[in-house]
Structure formats: structure tokens, C-alpha cells
Design brief:
By secondary structure, this protein is an all-alpha fold. Helix 1 packs antiparallel against helix 2 and helix 5 packs antiparallel against helix 6. It is globular and about 95 Å long. It starts with a helix and ends in a 15-residue tail after the last helix. The C terminus is likely disordered.
Length: 299
């Protein structure tokens, strides 16, 4: 009689163990899909950030009298229009959650504000254009940081990996924005061949802020082939601003040359961001260091 009881108990243990394994597998599959979808959403947001930053810089040059950028500005606007719809599915999915990072209403308002900016751009001052562009970029950065904190960080148990997430979704995007604002303001300075006291102070602040963010990102786990390249490009942009824009001898850099130098710096940081995203995706697939172990998503 006892052997029957033992047999039944053994079967129960096997069944429960199998059920636990299946549940764990389901949870890991869910986490895989969640991370993949979130990283794809982040890539769309990052692409939009980059395009808006370039549109802002070109707008500054155009509004300062440099007509070279007019055609490129129109093309950049079309690129932005083509990318915004990629966020609709993200907003729809987020709208089903208790605490969404982005809603369909948020996205609709964002697109309306962007359309308004395009329509009235030619009537704005350089300062107004930079401010309105920066407002839209800040909204994108807020959505990006929220996705990083609420949808990616919760999957990670390793503190170093969380540092990479914050580099990917917060610190490095903020660095591109400092550089992007410095590019836009510097484009106006170079096009006008003059730097006001206000512009001088702002450029000095943006350069200092960019250097601080760069150091923070390196300390938080910045490594890989793109890190040194980004550091050198940011240093070169800072050098040009300090020595060819802010000295009493005057402006010695043309708008197109400065745009190219600044764009290399911004693009190098975006390349660093892409490397960080690749590392996070590889971590989910078990290709990275075991310290990147992921746990089941709790939200």
C-alpha cells in the first residue's frame, strides 16, 4: 500500500516540477519578447531625436541667413514625418499598461506641435526655433528614459547592466542633446559671424555639461570600440567652440564646417548608444557576460 502512496507522491512532484519549468520558460519567453519590442521602440525614438536635432541645426543656419540648408531642411522634415508613425504601435501597447510611458494622445499632441513648428518656422527667430525644437526633443528623451527605467531596467538583476541601460536610454541621449543644442546655437553664430554674450555663456555651459555627461557615461560602464571615438569627437567639437568661436579674435569657422564637425561628434555618440543597445540585446540571448542575467518582468 505504501508503494502506491510513494508512487503518487513521486508523480505529483514530477508534474509540479514540469509545470514550474513550463511556467519559467513562459516567463523567459515573455521577457525576451518584451526586451526586443522595447529596444525597437527605443531605436525609433533615438532616430527621431537625431533627426530633430539635425533639423534644429539646419533651421538655425537658415534663419541666420545661410540658404545652403534650405533643401536639406525640407528633406529632413520628410524623414521625421516618415518616422513618427513607427511610434503608434508603441503608444497603443503602452496604453494597455497601468503606468504607460507613452500614450496615443501624447503622440497625437506631439505630431500636432511638430506640424505647427514646420508651418511657422520661417517666421521664428533663431532663439524661438531652438526653444521649440528643444521642447520636442525633450519630450522624446522623456519617453526614451521612461522606457529604459520601466521596461528594461526591471528585467536586469546586475547593477553594471543597469548602468548600461541608463547610458543607453538616459545619459548618452542627454549628451547628444547637449551637443545638438551646441550645434544649433553654433550654426547661428558661424552663419552670422558673431557671438553675443548670451550665446557665449550658453555655448560654454553646453560644452561643460557635455563633458560632464561624457565622463559619467564612461564611469557607468562605457567601453567598446565606439567609446574612444566618441570621446575624441566630442573633445574636437569642444576645442573648435572654445578656440574658433569664443575667443576675442572672432569667428574663424564657417557654418558648414562647424555643422560637419558637430555632426561627427553627435553621430559618434549615437554609435556608442547603438553599441550599448546591442550589448543589452546580446545579454538577453546569453551572449554577454553572465552579470547581465535577466529576470522576469514584474510590470
Amino acid at each position: 500500500m505504501n508503494w502506491i502512496i510513494y508512487t503518487i507522491l513521486a508523480l505529483v512532484v514530477v508534474v509540479l516540477g514540469g509545470a514550474a519549468m513550463l511556467y519559467r520558460r513562459h516567463c523567459w519567453d515573455f521577457a525576451d519578447k518584451s526586451l526586443t519590442n522595447t529596444l525597437e521602440a527605443c531605436r525609433s525614438l533615438l532616430a527621431l531625436v537625431g533627426h530633430f536635432q539635425q533639423h534644429r541645426g539646419m533651421s538655425s543656419a537658415l534663419l541666420s541667413g545661410d540658404q545652403v540648408f534650405r533643401t536639406r531642411l525640407d528633406g529632413k522634415g520628410r524623414e521625421i514625418d516618415a518616422l513618427i508613425p513607427s511610434l503608434r504601435e508603441v503608444a497603443r501597447e503602452e496604453g494597455t499598461r497601468a503606468h504607460p510611458c507613452l500614450t496615443q494622445n501624447d503622440l497625437a499632441l506631439f505630431q500636432f506641435q511638430w506640424n505647427q513648428l514646420r508651418e511657422k518656422l520661417c517666421g521664428l527667430s533663431v532663439e524661438q526655433s531652438i526653444a521649440q525644437h528643444s521642447f520636442l526633443v525633450d519630450q522624446l528623451l522623456q519617453w526614451l528614459a521612461a522606457l529604459g527605467e520601466s521596461r528594461i531596467e526591471v528585467l536586469l538583476v546586475d547593477r553594471c547592466a543597469r548602468g548600461q541601460v541608463r547610458n543607453y536610454a538616459s545619459r548618452l541621449p542627454a549628451l547628444t542633446e547637449c551637443l545638438g543644442q551646441a550645434r544649433a546655437l553654433g550654426m547661428s553664430v558661424a552663419a552670422q559671424r558673431g557671438c553675443s554674450a548670451v550665446a557665449r555663456v550658453r555655448l560654454m555651459f553646453l560644452v561643460a555639461r557635455a563633458e560632464a555627461l561624457l565622463n559619467q557615461a564612461k564611469e557607468a560602464g562605457g567601453r567598446g570600440p565606439g567609446v574612444e571615438k566618441a570621446e575624441l569627437a566630442v573633445q574636437e567639437m569642444a576645442r573648435v567652440i572654445r578656440t574658433r568661436m569664443l575667443l576675442s579674435s572672432g569667428i574663424s569657422v564657417a557654418a558648414q564646417e562647424y555643422f560637419d564637425i558637430a555632426t561627427v561628434a553627435v553621430d559618434s555618440v549615437f554609435a556608442w548608444i547603438n553599441e550599448s543597445g546591442t550589448m543589452l540585446a546580446a545579454a538577453r540571448n546569453g551572449k554577454a557576460n553572465s552579470g547581465y542575467a535577466l529576470q522576469m518582468q514584474s510590470a
